Amino acid sequence: MTPKRFRRLRQVLGRRQPDLTVLLENVHKPHNFAAVLRTADAVGLFEAHAVIYETKLRTSLVSAGGSDKWIDVKLHNDIGQAIDHLRDRGFVLLGAHPGARAIDYRQVDFTQPTALLLGQEKDGLTPAAREAVDDLISIPMTGFVDSLNVSVAAAVLLFEAHRQRSAAGMFENSRLAPEIYDQTLFEWAQPRLADYCRRHDLPYPALDENGQPIDPPP
Which residues contact 136 (CB under 8 A, 6 or more apart)? Predict the structure, then answer.
């Protein structure tokens, strides 16, 4: 860990948005899953959520996204449980799905606590998900196609959220709870030592200004 690298970690973590997230419903193609998480990292998401109905795919998808490094991916057993979890945390649930009920994504206030639901590549969100969300949103189409690839749609929507939040000054100061910030910074800066501490039920030692542990365990 170099001082320059540690400063970069702190800079990125300080811009993470704890109240903006995505919920992927059965997005089972690894390249799409990974692409959505790459965009999530680019726009400053702190965590992402996923419902993967094929159990065997769960581990491989999370690994494909590289999410164990920068984005905390939380897996849920079913869409109802995932939606209840996010709603209990105060998120407004927006489902990306075309149709008469859907509103233009540019009319949405993404500065509110927002969970963006994205469905699998072929059919989009399931009927259960569409009924459970607070609103459906869509990206207007001018050509013959009526929808975008799920990873492309995620990029369009998340960068609109980034634009709005940037204009509102929401990236200027850390918005993470101090204990979450410190824990995550340690896990990013010292992943092997963090794993050792977790396995041995030890508290994380403090870090100095260069990202080195001040009093590491033996």
Answer: 94, 95, 96, 97, 99, 101, 102, 103, 130
The radius of gyration computed from the CA coordinates of the chain, to the nearest angstrom, equals: 18
Distance CA 194, CA 175 (A): 23
Residue 196's domain spans which residues?
A: 1-15+174-210
40's tokens:
């999530």
Q: What gap in Å lies between CA 137 and CA 70, rounded to an integer?
A: 27
3-state secondary structure 145-162: CCCCCHHHHHHHHHHHHH
Contact 129/117 with Cβ under 8 angstroms? yes
Residue 5 is encoded by which pair of tokens?
């690298």
Examine the domain organization and report whether 74 and 47 are in the same domain.
yes
Same structural domain for residues 153 and 199?
A: no
* Side-by-side strand order, sheet with 114-119: 72-76, 47-51, 20-25, 114-119, 92-96, 135-138, 103-104
pTM of this prediction?
A: 0.90
- Interval 156-209: pLDDT, tens: 999 999 999 999 999 999 999 999 999 999 999 999 999 999 999 999 999 999
How far is Cα 135 from Cα 115, in angstroms, rounded to an integer? 11
Is the pLDDT at 57 greater than 90? The verdict is no
- Residue 107 domain-assigned? yes
